[in-house]
Amino acid sequence: MEALYFTRMSTKMTAVLLLLQLSSHFDSGSCGKVLVWSTEFSHWINMKVILEELTQRGHEVTVLKPSVSLFVDGDKSSAIKFESFPLSISGKYLENLKRKSISVLVYEMPKQPFWKYYSMFQEVMGQYSDVLENICRDAVLNKRLMAKLQESSFDVILSDAFFPCGELLAEILQKPFVYTFRFSPGNTIEKYSGGFLFPPSYVPIIFSELSDQMTFIERVKNLLYMIYFDFWFELLNEKKWNQFYSEILGEDTKIEDLYTMAKADFWLIRTYWDLEFPRPSLPNVDFVGGLHCRPAKPLPKEMEDFVQSSGENGVVVFSLGSIVGTLNEERANVIASALAQIPQKVLWRFDGKKPDTLGSNTRLYKWIPQGDLLGHPKTKAFITHGGTNGIYEAIYHGIPMIGIPLFVDQLDNISHLKIKGAAIRLDFNTMSSTDLLEALNEVIKDPSYKENVLRLSRIHHDQPVKPLDRAVFWIEFVMRHKGAKHLRVAAHDLSWFQYYSLDVVGFLFTCVATVILIVTKCCMLYCQKFAKTGKKKKGE
Amino acid sequence: MEALYFTRMSTKMTAVLLLLQLSSHFDSGSCGKVLVWSTEFSHWINMKVILEELTQRGHEVTVLKPSVSLFVDGDKSSAIKFESFPLSISGKYLENLKRKSISVLVYEMPKQPFWKYYSMFQEVMGQYSDVLENICRDAVLNKRLMAKLQESSFDVILSDAFFPCGELLAEILQKPFVYTFRFSPGNTIEKYSGGFLFPPSYVPIIFSELSDQMTFIERVKNLLYMIYFDFWFELLNEKKWNQFYSEILGEDTKIEDLYTMAKADFWLIRTYWDLEFPRPSLPNVDFVGGLHCRPAKPLPKEMEDFVQSSGENGVVVFSLGSIVGTLNEERANVIASALAQIPQKVLWRFDGKKPDTLGSNTRLYKWIPQGDLLGHPKTKAFITHGGTNGIYEAIYHGIPMIGIPLFVDQLDNISHLKIKGAAIRLDFNTMSSTDLLEALNEVIKDPSYKENVLRLSRIHHDQPVKPLDRAVFWIEFVMRHKGAKHLRVAAHDLSWFQYYSLDVVGFLFTCVATVILIVTKCCMLYCQKFAKTGKKKKGE
User: Fold this and answer.
1) Contact across the interface for B377 and A14, Cβ inside 8 Å
2) Beta strands A177-181; B423-425: pairing state
3) Minimal Cα–Cα distance from B283 to chain A, Å?
4) Where does the protein principally reside (chains A, B) (predicted)?
């Protein structure tokens, strides 16, 4: 009996040792070094949440940050390190570009016809692209910086595919890398992730503002948009990024070769099937939309008092996001006069001259704790520009929306929410006070908006693992395994005609045609011979 | 101060209430009623694991079981309920079919040339298909049974897409349903899940035994296999299932319409990227391969003593699965004589006449605790037929394999493991004792096999949520939300030419052609007019 006991114990212990041997390779507690190519605007706000979580789990996070930046900064309490490098562009130039481009995107572009609209958009994007190339060039040609990065032996590089350079750094430093990504115009970059994942027949591409249920004409529109953006992407890269990447790497390089999943180990897409329409995807892509959302914290005293003073009517939260601070006077007055007529109290994030029509029920704030306000039980509606971060906070807390989209993905975000019955959409430049007032009354009084956004909220909350935990898991996975090769499709090794099996189909057709030809020839020869023999016989 | 405290408290409490309101809709603790369409063979062994877990979490699980069955049974301790219905086929007939079909699949088919091989396979599958139709017919035409099921108001129906009928039941009872699935010949059923998810250029279809890295000729083979199985599937269904389903539902129905994801709410695929090559997938598909695996338990005393007696050399585990119990004498002797020559002790699951060449190092068992043996630290190698359940246990515990595949998916399973460097493949009918002996020595002595299978094991273990937990999560999700509509692609509403945008491309070509035609016509008319005017002028 004793012998058996020891035998079993030793068996168990060896089993434990084997498990330890296995688990040592994927111990989630081990810490790594993460290099981050910095992003800007709301992209940085979102990425910072991942970085903070990584540092809290003991990882060392270093953000490569140009000496001049609009958004990138760490809190004093944060453990995120910043590696700064000098930039050849002045802060004043960047501020000017931001101000001018917002003016074009918000006020000028919407008044233009289709082609002019997109040529103006192309121009703005081209200017940003120039800046991004400059930043990237200043980093990778900085010998001291690059030598330091080489020495630091990072475990993974993290970047946003919207801001090129991360993939170039990964190529130079020969490190595994992970993308965090919201979108590219027309989903051009996403398509390089490998294959027929955006069939234009039922996957509405971004900027088309369509749903997954398209009429024939809408499918024509979707395909034309796809072709247009593909062409534009090629044009933009051909001129600039391909040349630049080739120059740096010393060999003929196309940026799309670095975008493909053959290079990126994992893609963290900042949406989910609550907001997006379902589409095919690949094993090294995960949808982590709303990763920055968390339960609401208590509000500052003054704000809480104001919110409580709304009584049964509750409050409306209004923000046009972190980029657009000021509005022109005319638009501000149109909005303020509508807000003045509702029984709710309004908290408006606004940084400009106080509108003349502002009602006593509306308070202006240069900054609001948006997530906490949306999670407040008194909040009845959210007036939003439709930025992805903001609408995910509204979905998380189940607050119906009025969308006043301004540019880029905001138009599609609001379209999707409108189609799903969780928002009303208004046009920023043409809406009147009455339009906004009617929309507010409808969203607050018609229970369907609340029901629909609660449905999206349930979908959002009901996932096997929370989005932020999944994002961190996959970054840690790539560090632990030095990549995620087993998740990458082999599509990247194929040319487009091989991918669609056109060479194989061509070969099979040739085979069939050859057989038919030979059989026909033989038949004809036989018939001719038969005819000749017949004639001969007749002649005899 | 006190007022603020209470205000904050009330805010917090209302926030908690809102969260409760949200969470009540997705409380994972609530219990539901699951109806299961029973499966057979290893499919049942795997499904039973999910069902046991569901009962342990408090759900009521009812398995629809024909009065005669080969595998379906519950343990005495199990809380799974069985709803039996009379079957018009005898147990003897089923046993005979099983014996005969195994003889054809294992001994006769491999000797045949390609076309004969598949026509024999088609014949066997056709016989099973007849039996399955009979079982399905006996269930759905049993009025008492169907009335009872209608009354029972189940929350979800679970079935294996390999054994048709679950989708028909879901259609009749109008309930959400979930598939658990390993494969269909040529991946024909999986393709109905919605779209271009199996591009034959880099996704090797099952039965092709190819990898994701294919030469041109291999891609030709893969495409031909795909066409062949598509054709076969159409033929099989046209004759039988389409007619039967149309008869039952009273309207023209194609079985593939019920297979599509437009009907199934979720698909639980019993593989993962450790075994499979990565390929596109859809949001309502999850890969839960190895869900039945668990840490090893201690062995029975006699077995543990035998294992321990192997000393440093360790043991080899040998099983050809739950279906094939006996081998013919010649094959059994070839195997036994090879096993007799290795220094390891061997535990062989074998139910037949003891082979004459059996060595003293080999013990025969009618049944072995396979998972526990593979998890034993003394186990050096696993000789397997390559059934999915068995190889997942070997991957889970990191044991290199010698694959002797017999039929269906076993050939591809072993091919995949061979390509990934974790197994050696032998041919059951032609291998000699020397072949088996050399393979055993190589797998045990060459460390690369162990390293490769440990790599697969690390991939298998390193997932955000364990496969069984994910499987149960999604079944519970479908119960909580009465389906999973938000995860279903809109591809199902399109015809194939709409899906590939052929109508749109055709329309755009017509537009372009019309414009070219009009412009050309105008130019020609203008030239003609110009020429005439010129002549006139000359004439003047």
Assistant:
1) yes
2) unpaired
3) 6
4) endoplasmic reticulum
